[in-house]
Amino acid sequence: MTTFHIITLFPNAFKSYTGESIIARAIKNKKIKINFYNPRDFTKDKHKRVDRKPYGGGPGMVLEAESVLKAAEKAIGRKKKVKIIFLSPNGKQFDNLYAKKLAEIYKDIIIISGRYEGIDARVKKILRAESISIGPYVLTGGELPAMIILDAVSRQIKGVLGNQSSIEEERIASRDVYTRPEVLIYKGKKYSAPKVLLSGHHKKIEDWREKK
């Protein structure tokens, strides 16, 4: 079983996604497990405050290092082989090959989700975490990127999808897919599915998909 350890200020943000469909079933079937660690539970501040003003000035706040490090320590525990991901807009580009590698090599994956202007950079250095980005844009927090990584890695784990041939990158698949009815009538116009897909000729279908 692969366990995702997610460090976040907003663990409830994950409930709707992890509680539905394939991810929920993977959890139920014990293919994956998700643990959450809120830095607020590890701070010394009596008001549970974990954001601080940045050195050098700036418009926003920065997540303090100590509470995030303690959360990470809790997640690591006595585990010997752990992958630690530090979500950052300027990190290494996340893709399916990387997701597959994580699924094959690691049983414990820690994902550190930032907020505000980010997390004190010393966290990444101390934990020797790898900076990962899901794309060339900036979001308000690391929760969505963490969900994307969780989903992409989970579907690479045997048994999560049920039928492993459902992994699109492992099979020939065009960008366009069709289902019944053969002729769709919408607002008086007819839209037909490609005849080749109805032919039963597997070689021609594969050729069509490759061209698409």
Largest sheet: 5 strands, parallel
Q: Ends: how far apart?
A: 37 Å
- Based on CA inertia axes, which overall geometry fits? elongated
Mean pLDDT: 91
- The structural class is alpha/beta
Strand tally is 9
| CATH architecture descriptor name of the largest domain | 3-Layer(aba) Sandwich
Q: Record the strand order, biggest sheet.
A: 2-1-6-5-7
Q: Uncertain runs with pLDDT below 50, 5 residues or more?
A: none
**Strand-residue proportion:** 15-25%
Helix content: 25-40%
Multimeric state of these chains?
A: single chain
Total tally of structural domains: 2
Q: Which CATH class of the largest domain is shown? A: Alpha Beta
CATH level-4 homologous superfamily of the largest domain = SPOUT methyltransferase, trefoil knot domain
**What is the H/E string?**
EHHEEEHEHEHEHEEH
Would you give an account of this structure?
The chain has 212 residues and is of the alpha/beta class. The chain folds into two domains: 2-164, Alpha/beta knot (3-Layer(aba) Sandwich); 172-211. 29% of the residues lie in helices and 21% in strands. The chain has helices at 15-18, 21-28, 65-76, 96-105, 122-127, 143-154, 202-211, and strands at 2-7, 32-37, 51-52, 62-63, 83-93, 108-112, 130-133, 183-186, 189-192. The strands form three sheets. The protein has a five-stranded parallel sheet. Helix 4 (96-105) crosses helix 6 (143-154). It is elongated. The mean pLDDT is 91. GO terms for molecular function: tRNA (guanine(37)-N1)-methyltransferase activity. Keywords: Cytoplasm, Methyltransferase, S-adenosyl-L-methionine, Transferase, tRNA processing. Homodimer.
